[in-house]
Design brief:
Helix 3 (81-126) crosses helix 4 (131-139) and helix 3 (81-126) packs antiparallel against helix 8. This protein has one domain. The model is unreliable at 34-49 (pLDDT under 50). The protein has helices at residues 2-35, 61-77, 81-126, 131-139, 147-158, 163-173, 177-192, 196-245, 247-255, 257-280. It is mainly alpha-helical. It is built from 10 helices and no strands. The relative contact order is 0.13. The radius of gyration is 25 Å and the shape is elongated. Helices cover 80% and strands 0% of the residues.
C-alpha cells in the first residue's frame, strides 16, 4: 500500500511538471507565430548580470515545505508514513500556489509599467526624439520594479554598448513574453530600420490587451478558487466533527491499513485537484 501511495505522489509531481513544460512550449510557439518570419537578433548566451532577474522565484520553497512538514508529521506527530507523505505533498502544493500567486502579482505590475512606458516612448518618438531620448523620458515616469532594467538599457546604450545586445539582455533578465516582444521589436528596428513609433504603438496595445484578458480570467477564477477552498475546509471540518463525536471508532479506522490508505488517497487527490484547478484558471497566450 505504501508503494501505491508513493506512485500516486510521483504521478502528481510528473503531471505538474509536464503541464508546466507544455505551457511554456505553447507560449514560445505563440510568440514565434506572432513575430513571424522576421529575422530576430538572439540575446547573448551569457548576459551581463548587473541586476537580478525578475521576477525572483523561490521554486525550492514548495518541495522543501512538503518535505519538512511531511517529515515532522511522521517523526514528531506520529502519523502513518502514507498520511504524512500525502499531507506533505498537499502543503507543498499550497506553498507553490502561494509563491506562484505572489510572482503573478509582480508580473502583472511590471507588465502594466511596461505598457505605460511604451506609450510614453511612442509620444516622444512621434515628437521627433531619438530612441535613447525616448528611453530617458520614460525613465522619468517609470518606477520600480521596471525602472532599474530600463536604466541599465539606457546606460549601456549611452556608454556605447551594442543596442541590440542591451535590449537582448532585457528579455533574459525579465523572461516574460511581453518583454520578449518588446525587445524583439527594438532589435528588429536597429537591424532593418522603419517606423518604430508605429511598431511600439502596436506592441503597447497588444500588451494592454493581454493585461486586460489576464485580469478578466483572474476575476472569473476567484469564484472557483473560493469554492475549492470551501470544499477542502468542509472535508477537514467533517473529519474533526466525526472524531469529536466518536473518537474511538475514528482512531480505530485510522489505525487500519485500509483507513490509512483511504485518508492518504483523499489528501493526494486534493493536492492533484489543486494543481489541476490552478492550470485551468491560468491564462497562457
Amino acid at each position: 500500500m505504501t508503494a501505491a501511495i508513493i506512485v500516486v505522489i510521483c504521478a502528481v509531481a510528473f503531471t505538474y511538471i509536464w503541464y508546466g513544460h507544455r505551457a511554456r512550449r505553447r507560449a514560445d510557439e505563440r510568440l514565434g507565430a506572432l513575430i513571424g518570419k522576421t529575422t530576430v537578433v538572439e540575446p547573448r548566451e551569457e548576459p551581463r548580470r548587473a541586476i537580478r532577474p525578475f521576477p525572483r522565484r523561490y521554486r525550492a520553497a514548495a518541495p522543501a515545505t512538503g518535505i519538512v512538514v511531511g517529515g515532522a508529521l511522521w517523526l514528531m506527530v506520529g502519523l502513518p508514513f502514507e498520511v504524512a507523505a500525502a499531507a506533505g505533498v498537499l502543503l507543498g502544493v499550497l506553498a507553490h500556489l502561494i509563491e506562484d500567486q505572489v510572482a503573478g502579482q509582480k508580473t502583472a505590475l511590471i507588465e502594466a509599467q511596461l505598457a505605460a512606458a511604451i506609450y510614453l516612448m511612442v509620444g516622444s518618438l512621434r515628437a521627433g526624439a531619438s530612441l535613447l531620448s525616448a528611453f530617458e523620458s520614460a525613465l522619468e515616469e517609470v518606477g520600480p520594479p521596471l525602472r532599474p532594467y530600463f536604466q541599465e538599457v539606457a546606460g549601456r546604450i549611452r556608454l556605447g554598448d551594442d543596442p541590440r545586445a542591451a535590449v537582448g539582455d532585457l528579455q533574459v533578465n525579465i523572461p516574460l513574453e511581453t518583454f520578449r516582444l518588446f525587445a524583439t521589436s527594438l532589435a528588429i528596428h536597429w537591424e532593418v530600420g522603419g517606423s518604430l513609433a508605429t511598431t511600439l504603438s502596436t506592441v503597447g496595445q497588444t500588451i494592454r490587451d493581454r493585461i486586460e484578458l489576464s485580469r478578466r480570467v483572474r476575476a472569473q477564477g476567484v469564484e472557483s478558487h473560493a469554492s475549492v477552498a470551501v470544499v477542502l475546509a468542509i472535508a477537514y471540518v467533517l473529519a474533526f466533527l466525526m472524531w469529536r463525536t466518536n473518537p474511538d471508532r475514528m482512531e480505530a479506522f485510522v489505525s487500519t491499513s485500509i483507513g490509512t490508505a483511504i485518508i492518504a488517497g483523499v489528501i493526494g487527490l486534493q493536492a492533484f485537484g489543486l494543481v489541476w484547478m490552478s492550470r485551468l484558471n491560468r491564462s497562457t497566450f
